[in-house]
Sequence to fold (366 residues):
Amino acid sequence: MTLHIKKITLSFACCILSFVFAKPTFAAGTFFQSVSNALTSTLYKIYFLFPGDKSGKIIFAHSLEAMQQVKSLQLTGLSLVDLKSSTFTAASLKVLVQGPITMENIFTPQSYTQALTVSADTTLQGKLLHFQAETRSVNKTFYLKWNEVPILPSLDLSSLKGNWLKFPQSTSIMAQPSADSQQKMHDAFTQLIHDSQFSSAKKDVKNGHPVYILSITVPSIVLSHYVVAVSPSNSSKTIELLSNLSDVRAVVWVDRDTFYIRHVEFPLTYSLVKKNVNPTTLVNSTDPFSNLKNIDSVTMLLLADIDSFNTPVQIDAPIQPQDALPAFRRALSVPSFPDQTMQHYQPSELAPLSPSQRYLLQRYKT
Fold:
């Protein structure tokens, strides 16, 4: 579960940002590019002076340019997930992520520093599991502090509450992509935008800010081609997995003054290959996870509010955090024996067998 929380906080915090802002950085900055950017900016200003609805693609392109100036923001993200069968909802998940994020470049998640609060509610067969934690990501190191943990059968995590835990750096996640990889990502993203469908941008007001509202539809096949282009390994398997994904239709609110993106929302539906399992045999099962064997679709709704752009914020690493692995070993009562002490460990020091363990051992011997 902690790995899931870690993934949520490291990736969900920038999931919607990446979906909308995913424009990889690459070498630039020549004199001619500067002149071109100035001309483009002037043309934008003239274009926006004309009355009427605007092109959603132009608004979106301009917002990508503007978001490069963002060095900090406040994120409120909500994810609603339902695992369904044809007759009932097997499980539901609600994840709320809130907090500040600072970055050197918004298109480079490796540069993010964040202090996020994560609340998660999971419903399995009528049973509610509630988690609440604080997380920080500072200097590519992840920290976690549990504030609320559920009571689980044969699993007591209460000893972890209130203590900051430090996880090792993940070089595979934080590694900076090469110039060739960045160019490949840039080309794939350009093609993705070209093949996507944009609505016209209409004027509205969101949280007191004048905004443009536009929708972006990314056909599932276009998304598949994009994923394969940026990650060509196992491309046939990727296409097969994404073939059951619905078209992605995002709705984006863009600030009319700054062109910063203030709100994003999009639903997703993923269809699973349903096995021949009778759902009536699972609904009454005492195993809360048994219903998951019978799901045939996953629906998800992602929402994000983004505010407080470029507001100064200080995010520091927690003071004297504990190493996560030993803390979890203690909580889970998993023994850890250094290699040099293994030879001194005597069988008599083992905990006595329970009656059921003795019975199973005896059956094995006979």
Remarks:
- Confidence is low (pLDDT under 50) at residues 7-36, 279-284, 335-354, 356-361.
